Amino acid sequence: MAVTDVAILKIKEMILDGELAPGDRLPPEKELSESLGLSRSSMREAIKALEVIRVLDVRQGDGTYVTSLEPRLLLEAMSFVVDLHDDASVLELFAVRRLLEPAATALATAHMTPDIIENLRQQISSVDDKTSVEGLVAHDLEFHGAIVHLAGNSYLTTLLESLSGHTVRARVWRGLTEENSVARTLAEHKAIVEALAIGDASLAEALTIVHVSGVEQWLRGWSQASEA
């Protein structure tokens, strides 16, 4: 299991044991890492991950607090990080998305207009290296949702929106753990838009396959590394 996962498990145990409750302030990073027998770097990554999924609230100049969510919800939110690599269904969802979304993108090509293309470009330009992981994932959902909607098939759109919603947490975790995730995502989005702009459905479809497959391959690799 990855060291960050171990740190998250140990914080989870503190909540289960009653050492931490909603609203409580965590001990200082140095003290916490020493008491749990973990490095400060792994503890820092764990805190960052738990902040993204709203288990912890990091207040600059004040400290890190457990959020006000009830214990059951806190534990459910934490569980997905550790259990992600054991859940084959997430990989299966990505596999289905890889089959359907490129086809939807190809269908959407025929419905593109200059205004739509410009809007997609503006969506991409609103994100940069300073954008938070949450901001990047929000952009990713909006970008793909806009294209899929233009496929003109309401059943396909609804199905893909459901698939996309169930893969959000994996995409957040990729953003936290993979270097250059923002730059890579934006470059792939730009390539898809340019293919749509010239009306090349086959190219847009192929680029979408590569884009969706990248997340699937990362998740598979991360899962295997976590199990090692």
UniProtKB/TrEMBL annotation:
One Pfam match: GntR
Top-level taxon: Bacteria
GO MF annotations in UniProt: DNA binding; DNA-binding transcription factor activity
SUPFAM superfamilies hit by this protein: GntR ligand-binding domain-like, Winged helix' DNA-binding domain
Keyword list, A-Z: DNA-binding, Transcription, Transcription regulation
This protein's record includes keyword Flavoprotein: no
Record-annotated HTH gntR-type domain positions: 1-69
Protein name: Transcriptional regulator, GntR family
Natural source organism: Salinibacterium xinjiangense
